[in-house]
Design goal:
single chain, 41% helix, 5-stranded mixed beta sheet, 24 helices, alpha/beta
Amino acid sequence: MSTRRQSSQDRYDHILPFIEDVANQHYGGNHDKGFRHWAFSLIFVSHGVQDTDVIECTAIDGADDFEIDGWFIPEADDDRVVHLFQSKRRQAGTTMGASDLAAFLNAPSRIANANEVAASHNEETKNLHDRFLRILREDAAGCTVNLVWVTSGTLSPSARRHVVENSSKNITIQVDGDPVELKVTLECWDLQDLHQEHITQQESDDATAKCDVEFQLQPGAYHQIPSNTDYRTLAMTVAAKQIIDAFAKHRFKIFRRNPRGPLGNKVSAQIKQTLLDQTNRRRFHLLNNGITAICDSWRVDEGDKLFIQNFQVINGCQTTVTLWDARAAVQDSSEVLVTVKLAECPEHFASTIAKATNTQSSLKAEDFTSNEPVQLRLQKEFSAMNPAWFYEVKRGEWSKMLGGQREKGVYRDPEGGYRKLTSKEVAQALVAFAGFPGEAKDRIRNFLNKDSLSSIAREEEFSYNRFYNEKLSAKQLLLPATIQRKVWKQVSKTRPKTRTLKVGWITPGFTSFG
């Protein structure tokens, strides 16, 4: 979808429902905060941030925030990038000049200044200062501060020139009384940039369309693996650009068959460090485990062109999103190669391969059952209700796999927000209503992981298969799930400072699922 012929008002009207939804759900209808939250999620999508992460990362906004509306430091210890974020919601068509972002450019120096921070009354500013100084003391030379400035207005030509001039520079700050040289980068997003990225990430003519891709293979760099099964498998080494292009075309929909879903696959600092190293990037196919993918079918023509129908990455999703995140450094290089194993297999065997090849890093509770037939059936039943509910089986499925506003409109609640539930919260409500409130609160992972060696997961009364059988319907699950949500909401009102809340209770009855 092209955005060049659209007016600023058209672009803003398009993203406004998404801003309003976040504002109503989390900020009492405050559009400034809704815009900040929405833009933050959009820009840091490859890091897998969720709503709770964004709320925590933007808590600094307010008095004495040093022009910082949010900050984000990736979890990996070796990722020394500190992202500082500022948002300016303006009326569509408002022109933003260089002076509008000038104060933000001083944020790194101010947040490192111990005296200025000590005089601040913002506790989150003090927390950021402590974290920032700790990173600088450990490895100042390897640290980068990335300034991210967003607006719903339009950058003037002079402002864009100013952004280019300040896109990357070194500054000197004081750390414990000693001068330290620090690299600072700047990226700015105005309404057109945000709208285009939103279209790329969210909109699709058909959210269930097959993810068909084409790879140009090199002679001698691929071969079909001999197998005594019916599952044709191709082993190949391809240019990283081809994986980047596949992700650019289909985004998170190529992860439909991955048990973690899109939000379980974040940028890896270690992988990115390898890609940014001029020597190691040439060895990437040796240093990285590569990608395992499945498809409906594949064929190679005489020109070594590979045609893949419904390409699905089931292991190596972190590699994929990290390649995308580092694309500026690697997409034009033929030296950066990725090893790919591609299997043509039926749908019923896809989950077996996905689970077997995803044992290297931990799965969250809901990931264990994300491809279960009963879960997919319940998802269809929830969607077929009147009114319809969206049942999120995979993490991030709602925001990153489902299409845009057109598809989500059926789930909009007239009272605000959307009718959507996650498989984990539904499982907790189901188990609690059945008489296991403690287990619902503390042991839901054991319950959902049917292969767990935990004794509690093997108890006959507390077993996944007892609850999730062919007789269980979405209508049975809706009542406990909605009551649980109302309880959580009520408790959160009485404990406003609590960011993470788990609730369990005992409810009589609801022990038969026949």
